[in-house]
Amino acid sequence: MIHPVPPGTRDVLPDEMRELRALSARVLETWQGAGYGEVWTPTLEFEDVMRRGDDRTGAAGFRTFDDHGHVLTLRTDGTIPIARLVANRYEHADAPLRLCYFAHAYRAVKVRSGQPREFLQGGLELIGLPGPAGDAEVIALTLEALQGAGLRRHRLGLGDGALYGALLAELEVPEPARDALIEALSRRDLVGVETRVRRLGLSDAAIELLTRLPTLRGGPEVLDRVDGPATRAVEGLRELYQLLAERGVADRVILDLGLVRELGYYTGAVFEVYDPAVGFAIGGGGRYDELLGRFGRPRPACGIALDIHRVHVAQLEEERQAS
Amino acid sequence: MTATGLTIAVPRGALFGETLDLLDRLGLDTREIRENERRLIFPELGVITTRPSDVPTYVEHGAADIGITGKDVLLEQGDREVYELLDLRYGYCRMIVAARDGDDPLGEPLRRRGSVRVATKYPHIAAEHFARTGRQAEIVEVKGSVEIGPLTGLVDAIVDLTASGRTLSENHLVEHEQIVECTARLIANPVSHKLKAEAIDLFVEKVREAVAQ
Questions:
Q1: Domain, as residue range, for A253
Q2: Cβ–Cβ under 8 Å, residues B13 and B52
Q3: Closest approach of chain B CAs to the CA of A217, in angstroms?
Q4: How crowded is residue A263: how many other Cβ atoms within 10 Å of its Cβ?
Q5: How far are the Cα atoms of A185, A258, B192 from residue B185, in angstroms, in the given order?
Q6: Where are the beta strands (DSSP E) in chain B?
Q7: CB B190 to CB A281 under 8 A?
Q8: CA B165, B168, B169: angle at the middle one, nearest 5?
Q9: Same domain, B28 and B82
């Protein structure tokens, strides 16, 4: 007789478990070496806390009730609990905080292959250091951790989550149309973006800019391919790319002017991590300068989370190719 | 390495012929594909052939870098993580609500039973359409010919694709509402879109020129 496990969850047997532990240990070693302290937060959070961080993640939570009738949710994300922890425990710390974690997050997504409801994240959060210096540190440590884990072909996509919105504001596109455009962009619907842009009655140059910008990705030369009102908007990325070059990791970075992350708390630089062995991003993150303020003292912050299972798949493929 | 440096998912079915014509115009020799009805993979061309509704699956998982499928398929599978890169303009058809000829086939059940029963192969699109227009609908998912639904008393109406309208009229059905117009679309895997940016941009540019002609 077979006793089922809930859809989107699974058992891990000794061979895989040993490798996952070893992988996590390698990543942790890199991060601890850079001064990041590992923390643990509860698997269950009050739903109010998760919603305070990002109203939209609340919808994806598995919920239960405690004996007082408070709604509890399995954490849907690693960053929001850290923001809560920092507000509670490090209210008066002035020096930058460097924290990391290895924990499961849970999302009640529609289950398809490759979309688990329980997933293991290894993440780091750098609080109190603004961009672009903070962004550069987080990106460099992500790439170094993956290198340490044996990946050789991984790349990091780097964009600015506020870029397209700033450009729309600059071109005086009315508010409702702006939201619809950003929504289409975050759904990766470039046909929808183009259709909507053409309806706005803008100049040919503005139409060209708004439809071409989301497709610009590659090395530093993409920053030179924008003109007009976008020139100023990409200055932040240019400065960050320079810092990454100084750290010697720029060759792994793909500048991506169309990158928008789905979570609602990103305010600046956004990242996605790729490996050719995996069809989905193996990690992602960004700058979230407003999140800490929702829990207490406002502080700039930046972080990233790697999907450890997907990194493991990339690691296996790397081994297979090497043998 | 294939000519384009990419793996392309090509839909068998209604879009098959025009998709192969498009690939021909890009300089790929598709004779092999046309002559081998039963072969599904053509590694030398970098082409895999699947059902149109499976194209987003292969592309989302990265088994194909890019693919071609109908907008109807993309709307029905709305949560797929793929880039929609280009409107290819061929394969034009419309998603419509149809019912038997007669007075007020949708209004009557809504007024007297509170909801309308609708058969469709596109349950997501149908449910979304009725929800958006503030009407309650009971969606009955079927896999095959949806036209017999209203004729057998299974449902009051259908939501389906129509190109010429001939199948509808042959089954004494009349279009009542248009939901959306659909054409073929070029889609891409999000990781390939970054890691194979040059090859994809080159492909998109060539396709753009080909469909503009």
A1: 14-40+98-161+219-322
A2: yes
A3: 7
A4: 20
A5: 16, 19, 17
A6: 8-11, 41-42, 47-50, 66-70, 83-87, 93-100, 116-120, 137-141, 157-162, 173-182, 184-188
A7: yes
A8: 90
A9: yes
**Confidence at A114, pLDDT banded by 50, 70, 90:** low
Contact across the interface for A276 and B194, Cβ inside 8 Å: no
Q: Which of A113, A191, A274 sits opposite B195 (nearest CB)?
A: A274
Residue A191 and residue A237 share a domain: no
pLDDT digits (tens, 9 = 90+) for A170-208: 889 998 899 899 999 989 999 999 999 999 989 998 999
State whether B75 and B112 are in the same domain: no
B-chain residues near A281 (CB < 8 A): 190-191
Q: Residue B16 and residue A17: Cα distance in Å, rounded?
A: 45
Instruction: Tell me if B208 is assigned to some domain.
Output: yes
Q: How many domains does chain B have?
A: 2
User: Is A31 among the domain residues?
Assistant: yes
Q: What is the pLDDT of residue A229?
A: 76
What residue has token string 């019912």? Answer: B99
Q: A-contacting residues of B 86-115, CB under 8 Å?
A: 86-87
Rounded to the nearest angstrom, the gap between the alpha carbon of residue A4 and the centroid of all alpha carbons in its chain is: 32
Q: Which long-range contacts (CB under 8 A, 24 or more apart) does A270-273 make?
A: A270/A158, A270/A159, A270/A160, A270/A161, A271/A138, A271/A139, A271/A142, A271/A156, A271/A157, A271/A158, A271/A159, A271/A304, A272/A156, A272/A157, A272/B194, A273/A142, A273/A146, A273/A154, A273/A155, A273/A156, A273/A157, A273/A304, A273/A306
Q: Are residues A112 and A130 in the same domain?
A: yes
A70 belongs to a structural domain: no
Q: How many residues does the structure list for chain B?
A: 213
Instruction: Nearest chain B residue to A155 by CA: give it.
Output: B195
ipTM of the complex: 0.89
Shortest distance, CA A60 to any CA of chain B (angstroms): 14
pLDDT confidence of residue A233: 77
- Looking at the structure, tell me whether residues B105 and B55 fall in a common domain: no
- For A291, the token pair is 């999140």
CATH number of the domain bearing residue B148: 3.40.190.10
Q: What angle, 0 to 180 degrees and rounded to 10, lies between the N-to-C axes of helices A163-170 and A204-212?
A: 170
Query: Is the CB of residue B54 less than 8 Å away from at least one CB of chain A?
Result: no
Residues A310 and A173 in one domain: no
| Strand arrangement, sheet containing B157-162 | B137-141, B116-120, B157-162, B93-100, B173-182
Q: Note down the domain range covering B19.
A: 8-91+183-212
**For position A132, which CATH number holds?**
3.30.930.10
| pLDDT tens sequence across B141-162 | 999 889 999 889 899 999 999 9
Residues of chain B short of pLDDT 70, as ranges, are 1, 103
Query: Is A99's pLDDT higher than 70?
Result: yes
Closest-CA distance of chain B to residue A27, Å: 22
Residue in B83, B86, B194 closest to A157 by CB: B194
Is residue B2 included in any domain, yes or no?
A: no
Say what the pLDDT of residue A93 is.
87
Does any CB of chain B come closer than 8 Å to the CB of residue A212? Answer: no
